[in-house]
Amino acid sequence: MKALVYTQPNEVQLQERPEPALENGEVVLKIEAVGICGSDMHAYHGHDPRRLPGLVLGHEFCGTVLESASALYSPGTRVTGNPLITCGRCEYCIQGRNNLCAHRSMVGMTRPGAFAERMSIPAASLIDMPQDLPAAHAAVTEPAATALHAINLSMRVLVRPVQECRVLVLGGGAIGMLSALLLRHHGVDELTVAEVNPLRRAQLEKHAGVRTYNPRDGEPPENHFDFVIDAVGSKITRNSAFAAVKVGGVIMHIGLQDWASEIDMRRLTLAEITLLGTYTYTTADLRATVQMISRGAFGDLSWVDVRPLAEGAQAFRDLDQGKAASAKVILCP
Predict the structure, then answer these.
(1) Architecture per CATH, 2-140+304-332
(2) What is the pLDDT of residues 313-325, one digit of tens each?
């Protein structure tokens, strides 16, 4: 079968790979669509020691069951899935927080991913979806669920309802765009997004109806926003978030561009700022997101860039060089 393989830093190649084996309790999927994630780009740049050359990346997928060794799904069923493969037995899984599973593994990291014509995955990781949902929309479920999970966590601690808040999103990539669309769905009017890429700023203004600015041209007002989402996670954006958030406000940290940096703990304490971290989503979040996508809660998703898998290497280069206007590129085998 054809698969897009990470061969070395800054290179992916379309190669012939062996067919996935059907293991007990698993299914083999015919991949219909798969998104390029920021973490795939992180691996592409050689910055993720967990993802080594020779790996088929890709974990934002939808497909059709071809073969099944599980009573849960029959061939012919269209599904999306949870790329986090969890144990179902640890305290976090039992609590319904399986995104924090102590024994989790992951499609596209610890096992071959979805940048391929076919892929195997445990049937327990699959998510039902409307059978008429467009493939490119279904493949947006994973990043959209990340945004949903983060915003739901934040709304638990905001002092006032989110629609009353002045909100800043740092980063206009897929998570930033989907967060903006979901915040709009929740009724947020005062919404600003910081993004350095002018192509993406135009997309945000057109499809999410938000104010945008280039952070390289200057920072927003200090002590101004009730709620700040850092969808980049760099040292610069963390400092920007702390400067921009109001006294008593909330910062949600999603991005993982830089693994470590100092933050202003004095301001965190004296201004009683709530700093939250988030990791992916739960299975419940994924199921809810599928239904929200099908109802149009994230808009019509017409901004998504759909390309053939055979053009995957060029898609990675376009994203690397800032030539992709869309915050999400979907590949279709």
Answers:
(1) Alpha-Beta Complex (3.90)
(2) 999 999 999 899 8
